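Page header: ASSEMBLY MODEL / two components / 585 residues total.
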Amino acid sequence: MGTGGLARVWAVAANTFRETVRERVLYNLVFFAIIMTASGLLMGQLSVRQDEKIIKDIGLAAMELFGTLIAIFIGVGLVAKEIERRSLYPLLAKPLSREEFFLGKFAGLGFTLLVNVGLMAAGLALTLAGTGRRVDPGLLKAVYPIYLGLLVVVALALFFSTLTSSALAAVFTVGTVVAGRFSDVIRNMREVTDAPTWLVRILYYALPNFRNFDFKDRVAYGDPVPFAAIGAVTAYAVVYIAILLLAGSAAFRSRELS
Amino acid sequence: MSAAPATQVNGPALDVRGLSKTYRTGLLKKRSRPALKSLDLTVERGEILGYLGPNGSGKTTTLKILMGLVFPDSGTATVLGHPLRDGRWKHRVGYLPEQPYFYDYLSAREYLDYCGRLFGMTASARRQRAERLLELVGLRRSAGVPLRRFSKGMMQRVGIAQALINDPELVFLDEPMSGLDPIGRRLVRDIILGLKKEGKTVLFSTHILSDAEALCDRVALLRGGELVRVGDLAGILGSDVSHMEILASGLAPEAVDRLAPALKASHPLGDRWRLEVGGESLGSVVKAVEGAGGRVLSIQPVRQSLEDYFLKEMGEQRAEDAWELEG
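Prediction written out in full:
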């Protein structure tokens, strides 16, 4: 991809960012995330000496939950709705390849989520600081993996949205995300079912393991998180996203827009 | 403006050879519906070609194949001297899809800016071009309004503006008059004629025959995915007068009944009558009208219209299924 290609990806990404920040659903979800983070204050008061941990726990969980909802419900519409509404047609008649469009969509929503996660992290820091508690920079070691996990969800949503309608893509993405949160259960399936080992193994490795991105407890308890672990989860996310984007691009390239 | 490849000035603007497409439908894609059958079509530089046919005749499929939205089963095409798959021609082409839809959350100005960015235009070039096009399509005053508030006709105007953002040499317009009021249709007619004056090539599909008759150098007629006829209007319609039309007043219905054997048709228009007669009976019918106490208001020679020609060509197809004949 030359500089012209990058400029076009950037143009689609910037437009996607504008599209997503003007979505009403985004503000609803961010509003609930703020409510949930603030409710951590109340919960903290009910627990003796656990207040700071609870505020962190709830704040990070809100970031992850609402970030995931944004990634899924905005992500599945990014390509599928453009096809359903035919707004994609005049764009593809311009010097914009389908791959550039697809990448631009990913980058655009990725940037929206970065801003969202940043705002929610700032909200959590303000909640801690506003109640006289210490704002630990180590929180970033939980926030960053959450963001990586959200990028994987976006890539999944985009992948499914190139294959089917936005409604079905939402169902498939939610299913995959839920299954990916319980990947340990899948690994242990062979002990409790007659499922063939090879099938269990394929499922375990094919599904995204969202537990890899979960550093919330370690950070909330103040346990050390080595940079090597952060590096490993980054590599995992990069590889998984790259595979999804390549597969999604290939599917999108061969899809007829009739 | 855009980083367009060097212009090739020789050869046709569009050359299509043996283009075919069959849609597979149904859950298992077992049913098939042929949409285009071995289409051969050439569009010369600087001409306006009307691409005509009933609904489902393959017009939109042809344009979708050219724009890379659907893939042909067979055949080739050359656009501005470049093979279809090459894609370099996209810098020099504009396209208005049928019933276009754009982003709810953008204004017309923002949308045109976005389109300009896809062509690699600079910010100042985008701004200037967008303002010029908004003026051209009559949307300058609504340029900052979100597109979700636009009517169908306004959306169509945005569609035409985005198709021209890169100052294209070749413009494909799929049903450009669709959804437009008479003022809008006149505006689009003027834009198309303006493009021709600038030396651009225009291929537009329509089933509104009066538009084709008013604008086209040549027309191509499609039926059931097959090209039935292509040529200039004079060649297709001929220059011969098919009949004469007499507008008369003061005639009683019984008088018209007496004239019937000499008439091809008669139509009451309030207190007047429109009488269609062959050239050879003109003199005797005029005399008979005056003899019956009537008054001849006008006599006009009538040539075969595009509408007449197409209805004849469509033959077995019921007119109401095939066309939306508009004045």
